[in-house]
Amino acid sequence: MERVYVASCSMVKVGKLKEKGIGDLMGEASINAMKARPEIIPDRVIVGNMFSGVGSGQEHLGAYLANLLGLNNVPAYKVEAACGSGGVAVHNAYLAIKSGESSAVLVTGVEKMTDLEVNDATSALAMADNQEFSASVGATFTSLNALTYRIYLNKYGAKREELAAFPVLSHKNAMDSPHAMFKKRIDVKDVVESPVISDPIRLLDSSPMCDGAASLLIVNEKIAESLGGDLVEIASSEVAVNLFNLAERPDPLDYTATRAATKRALEKSQTKINQVDLMEIHDAFSITAALTLESIGVSKRGKAGKDAEKGRFEREGDIALNTFGGLKARGHPVGASGVYEIAEAYLQLTGNAGQCQVPDARVALAHNMGGVDTTTSVTVLARR
Amino acid sequence: MMNPSSYERLKRRYRELIGVRCEDCGKEYFPPLSRCRNCGSYRLVDAAMPRIGKLESYTVLKVVSSEFKGMEPIVLGIVELENGVRLISQIETDSIDSLKQGMELKMKIASIKDSFEVFRFSPIAT
User: Can A83 be counted among the known catalytic residues?
Assistant: First the structure.
């Protein structure tokens, strides 16, 4: 089996990018990742995206992007797993290199959300859930997470102020992040007093509607050796699914897909969780950050918010979390977020994270979910 | 998304709460699935679910999807039926403040928009 390396990355600054369409976004990210390694011509193109059909009236993104890049006759296709599309696209690239079928793969995650008005974007995001039996009776994606949040508050007697520490941390980290959407510090009071979206989830518990694209060039060992320079190994990449219908899960607070994918990813990379220097996790909402950390085992059940309050997840803390602002403050262009996370891990492990740098970062874990832990990818990356 | 064609296909399930029961182990499911999660059997037949349940969690939506625009706030819940099946449903109540985890609910039929009728749960008056 081949070993797998990230050779370059590129990220579009996330925001409401009125002047950029879906082709502009994925073209810009892809070209910058390719220009960083002009010696490489990708032999496969994979696009991670959730809802370009609804958001832009455009499908067939693989062929579209290959055409923009002047690449003809290569395999090129879109991978979709709701908000987890980006992580699963990287997983697909990992498999292609590992098996020896490809030697250099371009992966681009892209989402154009802001051409839709808010209710239409809410409908589009609800496609992550069961249309016939959940969205059709009024469930939105935020409401499903809110149902878990209420169970959490009741079960552990936790306070919303504790979990508000996650968006506060993400906004703080984004202040130094060149590609983050938000450059504004917030405090706990701002979060708990912000407008209700789906009670108990408030506006500042939630990641924003936004546009963005990120790209990675992923190569085999032979090419990595010939290139030299900044390289990061993808030591493992795992995907798992939880029960599709949230209500059917024996314990809706147990992210079993996160747990299974993390366990396999750590085992296959022979990594212990306490060796991980930084984690880029799926903080689409304050509650998803808490349940991710508790399902991985980094925090005890019901205590993740308290751990965040104590500073465990600061850049200089125990385990640095969402070092460029996470989904909450870097922004969550849904199908692209999993690629942003791995690009950010690449910058950290190559020492190119600038003001966001975690000192002496050697091992990173990226965690990306589609739905409420419905499809989860976990990637372990290591400094070469 | 619900349109006349999809509603026609699913209306029995929505109106009569028809899920499936495994003919081998007796486990019941809503919504339907193709292979029993409990015993692996493929022998699943349509079965009506109980219409009494209890509230496991709820949320009040202020921002809704486009199909429900103008109907906000919507109360949505996880309901555990008497057979242990848990599903997502709208909750009908005059008093959101009186909703409590574990409270008893009964099913009714409600029109969600135009002529689409689906299940909904409301507290059993005590």
Answer: yes
